[in-house]
């Protein structure tokens, strides 16, 4: 059964957020810009870690609500979860009082090895069954709502599988789960595999979306788009965000920038652009 | 089957040479080689940061061979990117000890100790203040290492390091960087004992003083008090 998100905690995470990353933390935590309403962290960077990361999180929590986004408890693996890590994750998430946690719908490791990257699941019934079961298992273990994020992928899928959007919806429905909708990933996948990103968004049940990710990506010389989080958000992704928010309503939007991090003012200009879109789209007549 | 695909992905990403059979199973040679590059680049990037001086000392080619050999064992066992260089070092230091000049492996040990203390867990909360009849609680972000070469001294000499046994306390300082303090053999043994925390301060002092045939007289007490004071003020004890 889906975990319901506490209204009180959820209400503090709204508007536009920014990923707390080492490269921008010093300036962000000193200036504490009011246009950034909340921060997102990767728990793997903080669990059992002191020093600068502990200090960054302590300072961030004074001024902002925090949401967590996992990198390693990927939902597509076949091996049993590491119970010790899930207990540590639960304890960490409980300590920092988050409204929900999210993870990627992908394959992050095989047996006892980790890719440290997000490898694609085949969009098959078998993968949907496994991912939904694992989502429920993690959700129960951390005792918090758990949203899955639609991932980017670069290799063509097998012919006998589902369309990506149908696969995501299948996992959501089976696990009665929430979605972290990454509009950049949809755009990147749409351009790499020639489908309409808006048609993808049309298939997503709006009520399941609890958060949105926005980022830039890298365009290789051969035309392949790579989800690097290392470039400014392109206009096409802003437009897709606008389209998505008009359908799903005022859910919190995160600007992801993990690589090639520019001066904070450049990111804040992107945050301002996101606010403009957010306010315009969520005040629209058809927003929920 | 997902299991077959997952294992093929692992081999394509980490094997010395991805096989045609795996690339065919996964469906797109060109795109899966992109994944191989993305996965390996992320790991190599953090390894290069952690072991920058070691890499510079042995050269890109030799360093790259060790990394590739380690990757071909199946990839990292840790979920934490910050622990990836530690796994590589565990694998590569014995190789470097055999194949490189002797101080290279020592430099790698020192760099990994420095990396470890920077990223160490938060310090444990002591149940009570330091007392001679209680077990000490040292900072998590502190390692005692014994080196045969003074590789902590920078810059690396053009002709390499000459042998010189060195005892170091490597610790995370107030600015979250790795700092070093040179120790004598007795202080290194004492801090090792305090790190293990399986005997009281008094027991460890008596045992280690006896081991080093050192009388616990005024001079010893003065030096011991100084190191305790320094460690308390620095938050390391």
Care to describe what's here?
The complex is a heterodimer of chains A (288) and B (237). Chain A has 288 residues and is of the alpha/beta class. Chain A has a single domain, classed as TIM Barrel, CATH 3.20.20. Chain A has ten helices and twelve strands. In chain A, the strands form three sheets. Chain A has an eight-stranded parallel β-barrel, surrounded by five helices. In chain A, strands 5-6 form a two-stranded antiparallel ribbon. In chain A, strands 10-11 form a two-stranded antiparallel ribbon. In chain A, helix 2 (22-31) packs parallel to helix 3 and helix 5 crosses helix 6. The mean pLDDT of chain A is 94. Chain B has helices at 2-14, 20-26, 29-50, 52-58, 60-71, 84-99, 102-118, 185-196, 201-211, 218-233, and strands at residues 142-147, 166-172, 178-183. Chain B has two domains: 1-100, no CATH class; 123-237, Outer Surface Protein A, domain 3, CATH 3.90.930. Chain B is 56% helix and 8% strand. The longest helix of chain B has 22 residues, at 29-50. In chain B, strand 2 (166-172) and strand 3 form a beta hairpin. Chain B is mainly alpha-helical and 237 residues long. In chain B, helix 1 packs across helix 2 and helix 1 packs across helix 3 (29-50). A three-stranded antiparallel β-sheet of chain B has the order 1-2-3, sandwiched between helices. The chains are: A alpha/beta (288), B mainly alpha (237). The interface between A and B is large, with 42 and 41 residues.
């Amino acid at each position: 059964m889906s975990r319901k998100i506490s209204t009180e905690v959820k209400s503090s995470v709204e508007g536009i957020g920014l990923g707390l990353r080492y490269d921008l933390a010093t300036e962000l935590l000193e200036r504490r810009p009011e246009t950034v309403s909340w921060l997102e962290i990767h728990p793997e960077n903080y669990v059992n870690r002191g020093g600068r990361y502990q200090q960054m999180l302590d300072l961030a929590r004074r001024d902002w609500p925090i949401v967590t986004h996992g990198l390693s408890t990927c939902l597509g693996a076949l091996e049993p979860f590491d119970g010790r890590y899930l207990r540590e994750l639960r304890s960490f998430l409980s300590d920092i009082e988050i409204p929900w946690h999210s993870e990627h719908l992908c394959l992050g490791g095989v047996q006892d090895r980790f890719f440290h990257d997000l490898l694609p699941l085949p969009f098959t019934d078998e993968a949907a069954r496994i991912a939904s079961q694992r989502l429920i298992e993690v959700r129960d273990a951390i005792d918090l709502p758990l949203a899955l994020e639609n991932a980017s992928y670069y290799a063509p899928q097998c012919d006998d599988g589902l369309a990506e959007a149908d696969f995501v919806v299948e996992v959501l429905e089976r696990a009665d789960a929430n979605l972290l909708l990454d509009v950049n990933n949809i755009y990147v996948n749409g351009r790499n595999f020639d489908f309409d990103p808006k048609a993808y968004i049309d298939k997503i049940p709006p009520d399941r979306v609890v958060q949105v990710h926005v980022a830039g990506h890298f365009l290789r010389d051969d035309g392949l788009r790579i989800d690097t989080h290392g470039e400014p958000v392109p206009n096409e992704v802003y437009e897709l965000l606008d389209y998505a928010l008009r359908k799903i309503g005022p859910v919190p939007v995160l600007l992801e920038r993990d690589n090639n991090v520019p001066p904070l003012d450049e990111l804040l200009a992107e945050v301002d652009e996101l606010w403009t879109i957010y306010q315009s789209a969520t005040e629209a007549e058809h927003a929920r | 089957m997902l299991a077959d695909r997952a294992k093929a992905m692992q081999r394509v990403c980490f094997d010395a040479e991805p096989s045609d059979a795996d690339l065919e199973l996964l469906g797109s040679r060109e795109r899966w080689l992109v994944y191989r590059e993305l996965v390996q680049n992320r790991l190599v990037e953090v390894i290069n940061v952690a072991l920058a001086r070691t890499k510079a000392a042995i050269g890109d080619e030799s360093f790259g061979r060790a990394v590739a050999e380690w990757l071909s064992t199946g990839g990292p066992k840790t979920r934490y990117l910050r622990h990836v260089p530690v796994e590589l070092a565990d694998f590569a230091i014995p190789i470097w000890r055999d194949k490189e000049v002797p101080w290279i492996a020592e430099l790698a040990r020192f760099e990994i100790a420095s990396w470890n203390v920077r990223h160490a867990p938060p310090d444990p909360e002591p149940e009570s203040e330091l007392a001679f009849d209680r077990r000490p609680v040292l900072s998590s972000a502190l390692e005692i290492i014994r080196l045969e070469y003074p590789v902590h001294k920078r810059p690396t000499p053009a002709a390499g390091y000459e042998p010189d046994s060195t005892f170091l306390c490597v610790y995370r300082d107030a600015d979250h960087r790795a700092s070093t303090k040179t120790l004598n053999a007795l202080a290194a043994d004492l801090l090792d004992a305090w790190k293990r925390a399986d005997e009281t301060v008094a027991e460890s002092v008596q045992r280690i003083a006896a081991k080093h045939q050192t009388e616990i007289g005024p001079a010893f007490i003065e030096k011991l008090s100084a190191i305790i004071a320094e460690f308390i003020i620095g938050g390391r004890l």
